[in-house]
Amino acid sequence: MSETTESADRLDWFEDESFWELSFPYVFPDEKFVSAEEQVNQIVKLTGSPFSHVLDLCCGPGRHAIPLAQLGARVTGVDRSPFLLEKARSRAESHNLQIEWIQQDMRTFVRPKQFDLVINLFTSFGYFGTTEEDLAVLRNAYESSVPGGFFLIDIVGKEILARKFAPSAVDEQPDGSVLVQKREITGDWYRVKTQWLLIQKNQVTRLEFDHALYSGRELVDLLRAAGFEDVKLYGTWEGGPYDLNAERLIAVAHKQA
């Protein structure tokens, strides 16, 4: 059995296009696109406000951008991966939707006071090496929001991961391949490092990636440092509290008018 290793330094693994190409079927199965449609419906309820111009920061293959556009919003999707953006464009075209797709790093993308809703979903945050870089992303979201606008971020919270942490898991995929996952907490619970082994017939492909971990309080503090004044936390897309039963860490931050 042969093995291929696809990995990069922890600061730039996300820049490796082969990572997204190889992991795409596992990260973005069809059911993820279905669940995104319901999540979009919940966004209006969580913010309590209608929206017309939306920024999907780290939009990936357009899972949320497309249903947002179907609701009538003017949507801008930003991602640094050409592969994922091409997936998004193709899907949008198949739905006859006009969406602006931009290839850019979220540490640098800013459009001052343009969007009444900015979203960053599916733990597309904390990829970078320092808290300062994460804070720069949130400041960009703040600057890109109109006065009175909202920023909604969805990640796996540190408390949630600690509650159900498993150092390894094995999942058999519908196509007969096997995905072996190994996880390690590093940096005194600052980051989680993950290694995937994709076993397909006689081929094993190794993928490695990591990202920062934030508790609910740490995320609130970071959002306030970015300029947001009113921040609410939720533990489910239905608006459940961020407590011991939380499934996700969802923060809704409001930019004062």
Could you walk me through the main structural features you see in this protein, from its secondary elements to its overall organization?
The protein is of the alpha/beta class and 257 residues long. The protein has two domains: 2-25 and 160-212, N-terminal domain of TfIIb, CATH 2.20.25; 27-157 and 214-254, Rossmann fold (3-Layer(aba) Sandwich), CATH 3.40.50. The protein is 31% helix and 32% strand. It is built from seven helices and twelve strands. The protein has helices at residues 17-27, 30-47, 65-70, 82-94, 131-144, 158-164, 216-226, and strands spanning 2-6, 53-57, 74-79, 100-103, 115-120, 145-155, 168-172, 178-186, 191-200, 203-212, 230-234, 249-254. The strands form two sheets. The protein has a seven-stranded mixed β-sheet with strand order 4-3-2-5-6-12-11, with helices on both faces. Helix 5 (131-144) links the parallel strand 5 and strand 6. The longest helix has 18 residues, at 30-47. The protein is globular and about 55 Å long. The N and C termini lie far apart (60 Å). The model is unreliable at 1-11 (pLDDT under 50).
